[in-house]
Design goal:
By secondary structure, this protein is an all-alpha fold. The protein contains eleven helices and no strands. The chain is globular and about 45 Å long.
Length: 247
């Protein structure tokens, strides 16, 4: 099982990091399909998110695609809410219900990116509304903490629709957002002594996503942002999400 997941996690990290995402939705979908324990799923997905986007944040910052003021505006409310969401006690049935809804929504957002989002940067960026996007980021952070999904898959289309920044900068902002919320989620789990880490399971997966994430973030920051990310994983996430909801 671990060998197959390592290969799939590597591909997910490569694809997602190239678009500024951590891949938490796909990691959770894959582990759900392999019937991994739900506490182990959540901890492993958050750890993999951190491993992938840490390199991405560095590369985006070095290449000038991470406006720090906007990054902190988006994260100011989301970080404490991600901690609170992770700290909330959830039964297994409630977790999988929330995760099924979150994965299904993630697939819809990814399909939007693939079929409706235009190539290139918005013609005219809109200024202001920092408080509004901060509140939206807070809601996404709460969902992130409860499910283990970093939240970038939801934040990025919202920022694109609002013409918040250029496509490259939004990828950098999404990486930063995922990083701080995933760390907050892990801290929330640690606070209630709920982090589940099995080295023989999570260790190889972390190594796979670190390698894939470094390659993907370099491709994004220095070459192009590949739009095929959404199409490559949307069906998998949709299938896993709907399967959870049916069960």
């Amino acid at each position: 099982m671990v060998t197959e997941l390592c290969f799939l996690f590597f591909l997910v990290a490569l694809a997602y990091s190239a678009a500024g995402f951590g891949g938490g939705s796909s990691y959770l979908a894959l582990m759900a399909l392999w019937s991994v324990d739900f506490q182990l799923m959540k901890s492993t997905a958050l750890l993999c998110n951190v491993a992938v986007v840490a390199g991405g944040v560095y590369h985006f910052y070095r290449s000038g695609h991470l406006p720090l003021k906007k990054a902190w505006q988006l994260s100011l409310v989301s970080v404490p809410l991600a901690f609170a969401g992770s700290y909330l006690p959830l039964k297994q049935e409630t977790f999988f219900l929330l995760l099924g809804i979150a994965l299904t929504l993630a697939a819809v957002f990814m399909c939007y990116r693939l079929f409706f989002e235009k190539e290139g940067d918005p013609a005219a960026l809109r200024s202001g509304n920092g408080m509004l996007y901060g509140v939206i980021g807070g809601g996404i952070g709460l969902l992130s903490g409860m499910t283990g999904i970093g939240g970038g898959i939801y934040l990025s289309p919202v920022l694109r629709l609002g013409k918040y920044d250029t496509a490259k900068n939004i990828a950098g902002l999404s990486s930063f957002f995922i990083l701080v919320n995933s760390i907050a989620g892990l801290l929330g789990q640690a606070a209630k002594h709920a982090i589940v880490f099995k080295w023989d399971f999570a260790g190889p997966l972390l190594l796979s996503v670190i390698i894939g994430g470094q390659v993907g973030s370099l491709l994004s920051a220095r070459i192009l942002k590949p739009r095929w990310v959404a199409g490559a994983t949307a069906l998998l996430i949709l299938y896993a999400g709907v399967r959870m909801l049916i069960k």
